[in-house]
Amino acid sequence: KAKNPHEPEFIQAVDEVARDILPFEEENPAYKGEKFFTRMIEPERVFIFRVPWTDDKGNFHINRGFRVQMNSAIGPYKGGLRFHPSVNLSILKFLAFEQVFKNSLTTLPLGGGKGGADFDPKGKSDNEVMRFCQSFMTELAKYIGSNADVPAGDIGVGSREIGYLFGQYKRIKGEYTGVLTGKGLSYGGSLIRSEATGYGNVYFSLNMLERNKIEVEGKVCTVSGSGNVAQYTAQKLIELGAKVVTLSDSGGTIYDKDGIDEEKLAYVMEVKNERRGRIKEYIDKYPSAEFRAGARPWEVACDLAYPSATQNELDGKDAAVLVKNGCKGVFEGANMPCTPEAIDIFRDNKLLYAPGKASNAGGVATSGLEMSQNSLRMSWTREEVDDRLKVIMGNIHEQCVIYGKDGNDGYIDYLKGANIAGFVKVADAMMAQGLV
Ligand code: NDP
């Protein structure tokens, strides 16, 4: 805390992991002696750079670009790029730190990193976004590579941005490699990558529900966000017969008591992906639904909740409302959407709670599968990738169960399980590689 006084999100993420790892290190002195946790909270390196670009009217703009290379003990750095006005070093260090544990849990050889810029793609023309991406990559290209550091998308970085970034990297380096994931299918992308985070979170929740003999069919589900993760979470839940009643964005929440079906979701995808519109446009087409300006979905009574927008979007008050309304499980699609107070309430009330570093790892896992396909110069079928994704989510679940046993009542603390399982693999690799 003394070293990073202006990094609240990073401190929050480290605190959350420390509470499980420090007691574990006490019980396992081999880990404690080599100060793995202390080493793991210091990034291997951080790049901060200027990103100059011009808008369509010829005005000059300067943004700040970042890449945090957190840990490469088990593989090349891997983690998304976020373009959002709120981006700063604290947020990217928190995301990179979480990514180390998440990537370790996937069972794939992936280190952890994260990057981005305080650039807001909202309201920008395609040409402006392209010029920004080209300028950003002109600097970033110096630090990444298919065997060194492989970025992907995150908030504000979707297939359009990945395309522009990839084109510029290729132009600078003169080589065609799998340096980015989340690419389009025509130039090295993987089937199921777009769906992977949302689908993966639902697969993870199915493992948890099955263990507790709860059926997903017919359950009322609240989903927050309406971007990549939210859309495919909703899609898989609908396919499985659940009733999804909310989606949201930073403007507010739509509540459709009749349930969002496939047709309604297709409309949301058109509004958000093709027109880059706002979620409130939903009620223009489906007036029986309700738009709650500025509200989050958590006051809507539900059986299962899937926070899939952004960090700290579900606080202690929201958690208390969820518990009061009889919610049975909360499954994080976003990174750190639940505050520490909310997590305490879930733990105290023995709610099923899936931490993002485990439950949203399907995205990066499928990115790992995209890297494998690029190296093989092959493409796997949709079924092949989806099957591998299901197996990986099952393995992550298994690791959480092994390390997350809490007390004698069979309750699994998935957060503790994910933290310890993720930590052990990275610490073992660091131990083997000496003091680096
Ligand atoms: P998108 O940019 O596609 O969508 C983000 C969604 O969250 C939008 O609906 C956005 O609304 C909303 N949102 C963003 N910031 C805020 C905010 N401050 N308050 C309220 N709503 C907000 O991003 P993704 O779907 O890719 O990412 C969502 C979350 O999932 C993030 O936490 C990301 O780190 C995490 N994640 C994503 C992975 C992926 O594969 N894409 C992998 C693992 C985790 P608006 O349009 O109004 O900004």
UniProtKB/TrEMBL annotation:
GO cellular-component term (any): cytosol
InterPro entries registered for this protein in UniProt: Aminoacid_DH-like_N_sf (IPR046346), Glu/Leu/Phe/Val/Trp_DH (IPR006095), Glu/Leu/Phe/Val/Trp_DH_C (IPR006096), Glu/Leu/Phe/Val/Trp_DH_dimer (IPR006097), Glu/Leu/Phe/Val_DH_AS (IPR033524), Glu_DH (IPR014362), Glu_Leu_Phe_Val_DH (IPR050724), NAD(P)-bd_dom_sf (IPR036291)
UniProt-recorded Gene Ontology molecular function terms: glutamate dehydrogenase (NADP+) activity; nucleotide binding
Residues of the active site: K114
Record key words, sorted: NAD, Nucleotide-binding, Oxidoreductase
Residues binding substrate, per UniProt: K78, Q99, K102, G153, S367
Cited Gene3D superfamilies: Glutamate Dehydrogenase, chain A, domain 3 (1.10.285.10), Leucine Dehydrogenase, chain A, domain 1 (3.40.50.10860), NAD(P)-binding Rossmann-like Domain (3.40.50.720)
Domain of life: Bacteria
Annotated binding of NAD(+), by residue: T197, N228
SUPFAM superfamilies xrefs: Aminoacid dehydrogenase-like, N-terminal domain, NAD(P)-binding Rossmann-fold domains
Domain Glutamate/phenylalanine/leucine/valine/L-tryptophan dehydrogenase C-terminal: 190-434
CDD domains noted in UniProt: NAD_bind_2_Glu_DH
One GO BP: glutamate biosynthetic process
Residues flagged as site, Important for catalysis: D154
Entry similarity comment: Belongs to the Glu/Leu/Phe/Val dehydrogenases family.
Subunit and partners: Homohexamer.
Protein name per Swiss-Prot or TrEMBL: Glutamate dehydrogenase
